[in-house]
Specification:
The complex is a heterotrimer of chains A (257), B (239) and C (415).
Chain A (H helix, E strand, L loop, with lengths): L1 H15 L2 H19 L3 H30 L1 H8 L5 H31 L3 H27 L3 H29 L6 H10 L1 H12 L7 H12 L1 H27 L4
Helix pairs in contact in A: 1-5, 2-3, 2-5, 3-5, 3-6, 3-7, 5-6, 5-11, 6-7, 6-9, 6-11, 9-10, 10-11
Chain B lengths: L1 E10 L3 E10 L4 E5 L6 H9 L6 E6 L2 E2 L10 E4 L11 H12 L7 H7 L14 H14 L4 E5 L7 H16 L3 E5 L3 H7 L2 E6 L2 E7 L9 H14 L6
Parallel strand pairs in B: 3-8, 3-9, 6-7, 7-8
Antiparallel strand pairs in B: 1-2, 1-4, 4-5, 9-10
Chain C lengths: L1 H21 L2 E4 L8 H7 L5 E4 L2 E4 L3 E3 L4 E4 L3 E4 L7 E3 L5 E3 L2 E3 L10 E6 L5 E3 L2 E3 L3 E6 L5 E3 L2 E3 L12 E4 L5 E3 L2 E3 L5 E4 L5 E3 L2 E3 L4 E6 L5 E3 L2 E3 L4 E8 L2 E3 L2 E3 L9 E7 L2 E3 L2 E3 L3 E9 L2 E3 L2 E3 L3 E5 L7 E3 L2 E3 L3 E4 L8 E3 L2 E2 L22 H8 L10 H12 L21
Parallel strand pairs in C: 1-2, 2-5, 3-6, 4-7, 5-8, 6-9, 7-10, 8-11, 9-12, 10-13, 11-14, 12-15, 13-16, 14-17, 15-18, 16-19, 17-20, 18-21, 19-22, 20-23, 21-24, 22-25, 23-26, 24-27, 25-28, 26-29, 27-30, 28-31, 29-32, 30-33, 31-34, 32-35, 33-36, 34-37, 35-38, 36-39
The chains are: A mainly alpha (257), B alpha/beta (239), C mainly beta (415).
Chain lengths: 257, 239, 415
């Protein structure tokens, strides 16, 4: 019961800050700019995909943690009231996720829908929502663990670099050094484990990029396109959403104010 | 009504709160005293659930507070530095608090008037001065007519007029049979109000005395005792 | 001398007119003299015209060995009942037109067709419809024939149990124009056939190739459309082929391409559009081929040029929206890339000559990785990959040093 109230306080607090409007306008400007300037739908979509896969998580991490650091007084004020820590955490997590989802939908999905109402836009929406909640979980986890704001944001940028860059670098490294071994299964497993890669692979395969890739592409397509692969990917995305936020809430429940 | 048993909380190696046993009963004003870093605030925050002890048990009216939240309906808290969310307006802070506490009682106009809240309702908490924030904090602590009122350094930064109102309110609560738990550095202040003194040092209760006030006296004995305690334990700082 | 020559020509023309006027029209059908097509053909003599009325006629193993015209009225259907070849032509100058032929026999041993031209000259197959046949139009050891306006539709499901739409074996000078072929194994197939002209055809949805050349020199194909075939168009083991103004579209699949070039020399590929193919052109053992003024768009790879290609010229082409522009499996390059438009080009043109002042390297680092380890494709679109590609473009380390367009066009030519 209190969760709804607490969600309401956090949500109205977040959307009143300049962040969400700026975030929305930024995404809107980028999206409509890309749609306007690129003549080709697919190319525009891939640019938008990059924004959703890389920029949105980065903004999530920074915004989520900075908000958490800045709302310390608010959290403390709430915690002196008869509310459970669980509902304060969930209220904060959900309002962070939903406010950013709202910004994402208004700034990115809406112009995309207007331009090209398709399954692609729906997939991008799904990927974006997953990533927003996953990376807000990370943001809250780190900002509840590390009290120093600068240090916390630094760690989160490292988290982003890991998922966005280093992980793929490790995969590339693996491809390079184990080129002579059969790598299909390893690749499927590796790309299933990173939420950014799951989202990207899933959408790229839906775009029928798989045909580019001969036999390998066919294997991936079969895996990610068939029931099992979809369920496993969704399961992994859910795990990424649940696990960091679970630990963030555990941390929050034991946190001293 | 509040009982603390074997509570331990440490911050690194430098500080450890250890409370063997502490019972706080209704209808009393209990004062926590002690030098900086002696664990007063940590103890208060433990009662509120803001700080989570490693060991021990705290009960309020016989119910273990660990992981609970409903008991806080009975407690109002005035924190030390009154950290309010800076982007919220005063009236929003009040309405959120009232909203959560499910108290739909009418505005306590006396409280509003005396603490000068009416004139700052539209202001953002971030724009308030320290003294004004303390006034707001005090008003919130007394607003809900709760069974237990916890005040952390309530008079620090508060103007003399508001301090007087605060004291009057404390007495009023006591008469109504509520428990008031407060910390302070200022000996004079508490000697007038307190029924019981808990003196803390290095996270432990050093002295726990009640009935120190001789009937008809003005608390001289008490003042002397506290001064002595401070002198002994931190002579350089607290004279 | 010239008067005598003129006289002979005049006489020949008179004779032709005379014989033409003597030729009979034989009708087959309800109101005709015959109800059976074979009977009509047997009774006909050179120069006769057989007109088949509306109706379904069961025809199987019909041999046309005289110079006749076999012509259908509307909805005249010859049904082969899946037995043998429907019509086999063994005489020169036979014309078969406006007929619908269906249900030829199927065989694993011989290439049964709806119409076979066997060792003939100057025949024409025009505006026929061929449905549900093993092979549709089969020309063997024939020359100077014309195949035009036919509509061939098969429903092939497996390569081994299906035939080709228009199949030429050891033919020369055959014109194949304005036909539509779909649902066969290969749409149009040429083996050991020379000097053919293939134009205005549409070949789509065939199991294997839209057009397939083997050992067939000196042919040209222009203004055809090859769409959505299993593997695209294949030109193999041949030379002197002209390929102009064709469209290669949506040949998309694991082992697919717009145009496969394999062991081909001295040919011209001009003004074609390659759009939406897995690989626009896949070139292997291709030498001295000019690839000029083509458009490559929305392909997975615009050009895959393997290391055994020499002295090819790739010039004035337009590359846009391809995942990879050029890929290769070698670090050396023996072909010329010049004055192409590349949409990924980020250079500038200070001297305003419409040509970029900085060279463009169309081979991306990632395409090399994918070439080496196909599994790496899962990283397509990855931020890291884009970073690496950008870095490699600035300071090339891995990509072929000489595979470079030194003077890329700065503006797109008119589409």
């Amino acid at each position: 019961m209190n969760l709804r109230k607490i969600f309401k306080y956090f949500f109205s607090d977040i959307i009143r800050s300049k962040w969400i409007p700026v975030y929305t306008v930024l995404l809107f400007a980028l999206t409509s700019g890309i749609i306007y300037f690129s003549r080709d739908g697919q190319k525009a979509f891939i640019s938008l995909l990059n924004i959703a896969l890389y920029l949105v998580p980065l903004l999530c991490l920074i915004f989520g943690s900075v908000y958490n650091y800045n709302s310390r007084e608010f959290v403390e004020m709430l915690l002196t009231q008869p509310v459970t820590r669980r509902s304060v955490f969930l209220g904060q997590y959900l309002s962070l996720g939903l406010s950013q989802t709202a910004g994402f939908v208004l700034g990115m999905i809406l112009p995309l829908f207007i331009y090209d109402f398709s399954i692609n836009a729906a997939l991008l929406l799904a990927a974006g929502i997953f990533l927003i909640f996953i990376f807000n979980g990370f943001a809250l986890l780190v900002s509840n663990m590390v009290n120093d704001k600068v240090k916390g944001v630094g760690i989160l940028i490292a988290v982003w670099l890991f998922f966005a860059v280093f992980y793929d670098g490790l995969m590339l490294f693996m491809f390079y050094y184990f080129a002579d071994y059969p790598l299909e299964k390893t690749t499927i497993i590796a790309s299933s484990l990173n939420p950014v890669d799951v989202a990207r692979t899933f959408i790229m395969l839906r775009l029928d990029m798989s045909a580019l890739f001969g036999y390998t592409g066919a294997v991936f397509k079969k895996y990610f396109g068939s029931g099992a692969g979809i369920y496993v990917s969704l399961l992994i995305l859910h795990l990424w959403m649940i696990v960091p936020s679970f630990f963030a809430s555990k941390k929050f429940k034991r946190k001293d104010f | 009504m509040i009982s603390v048993n074997g509570v331990v909380k440490s911050y690194g190696k430098s500080f450890k709160l250890e409370i063997e046993k502490l019972e706080l009963k209704k209808g009393l004003v209990v004062t926590l005293m002690g030098p900086n870093g002696s664990g007063k605030t940590t103890l208060l925050k433990s009662l509120l659930g803001l700080v989570i002890p490693e060991k021990g048990k705290i009960t309020v009216d016989g119910n273990n507070i660990s992981g609970e939240s409903d008991y806080r309906n009975k407690i109002c808290y005035m924190p030390q530095s009154s950290p309010f969310p800076p982007n919220l307006k005063v009236k929003e802070i009040i309405s959120i608090t009232r909203d959560i506490r499910k108290k739909q009682n009418n505005y306590d106009y006396e409280l509003y008037e005396k603490f000068g809240i009416e004139s700052i309702l539209g202001k953002k908490a971030g724009a308030l001065s320290q003294g004004t924030r303390q006034r707001l904090s005090a008003a919130l602590a007394f607003m809900f007519d709760s069974e237990i009122v916890v005040l952390d350094e309530p008079t620090a930064g508060l103007d003399p007029y508001s301090s007087e109102i605060l004291k009057a309110r404390i007495i009023k609560l006591k008469k109504a049979g509520k428990l008031v738990l407060l910390t302070t550095h200022i000996v004079n202040e508490v000697s007038e109000l307190s029924d019981r003194l808990v003196f803390m040092l290095d996270g432990k209760i050093k002295v726990d005395r009640d009935s120190f006030r001789t009937p008809g006296g003005n608390g001289k004995e008490f003042r002397e005792m506290v001064s002595k305690l401070f002198m002994e334990n931190e002579p350089a700082k607290n004279i | 001398m010239s008067a005598l020559k003129a006289g002979i020509i005049l006489a020949a023309m008179c004779l032709m007119l005379f014989s033409e006027s003597r030729s009979a029209v034989i009708r087959v059908g309800m109101s005709g003299k015959f109800t059976d097509v074979a009977d009509a053909v047997n009774s006909a003599s050179d120069g006769d015209r057989i007109v088949i009325e509306k109706g379904i006629y069961f025809v199987s193993g019909l041999n046309i060995n005289k110079k006749i015209i076999l012509e259908g009225e509307q909805d005249a259907v010859l049904d082969g009942s899946f037995l043998k070849e429907i019509i086999t032509v063994t005489s020169d100058s036979v014309i078969i037109k406006n007929l619908t032929l269906r249900n030829s026999g199927t065989s694993y041993v011989s290439d049964l067709a709806a119409i076979r031209l066997e060792n003939v000259k100057h025949c024409a197959l025009e505006n026929n419809v061929v449905e549900n046949s093993f092979f549709a139009l089969y020309l063997s050891s024939s020359s100077d024939c014309k195949i035009s306006g036919n509509r061939i539709a098969g429903n092939s499901v497996s390569e081994s149990f299906s035939g080709n739409g228009i199949h030429l074996w050891k033919c020369s000078g055959v014109t194949i124009s304005d036909n539509t072929v779909s649902g066969m194994r290969d749409g149009i197939y040429l083996e050991f056939s020379t000097n053919g002209e293939i134009s205005g055809n549409t070949s789509f949805g065939n199991l294997r190739y839209g057009l397939h050349f083997m050992f067939s020199e000196g042919n040209s194909y222009t203004s055809n459309t090859f769409r959505n075939n299993g593997a695209g168009v294949a030109v193999m083991y041949t030379k002197k082929i002209t390929m102009n103004f064709n469209r290669f579209e949506d040949n998309w699949g694991a082992n697919s391409y717009g145009l496969l070039l394999k062991d081909i020399d001295n040919s011209l590929i001009y003004g074609n559009v390659f759009s939406g193919n897995t690989a626009g052109i896949y070139a292997e053992g291709t030498n001295r081929v000019n690839i000029l003024n083509n458009t490559f768009e929305k392909n997975g790879w615009a050009l895959k040029v393997l290391g055994n290609c020499y002295e090819d010229t790739i010039r004035y082409n337009r590359f846009s929206n391809n995942t990879f522009d050029v890929s290769t499996n070698t670090s050396k390059n023996a072909n010329l890339f010049l004055n192409n438009f590349w949409d990924k080009y980020k250079g500038y043109d200070l001297d305003n000559d419409k040509k970029g002042d900085v060279p463009y390297r169309p081979v991306s680092l990632f395409s090399l990785v994918v070439e080496r380890v196909p599994e790496a494709v899962v990283l397509t679109g990855s931020f890291l990959v884009e970073l690496l590609d950008a870095a490699e473009k600035i300071i090339p380390v891995f990509t072929p040093e000489t595979l470079v367009d030194n003077s890329p066009l700065i503006e797109e030519r008119g589409r």
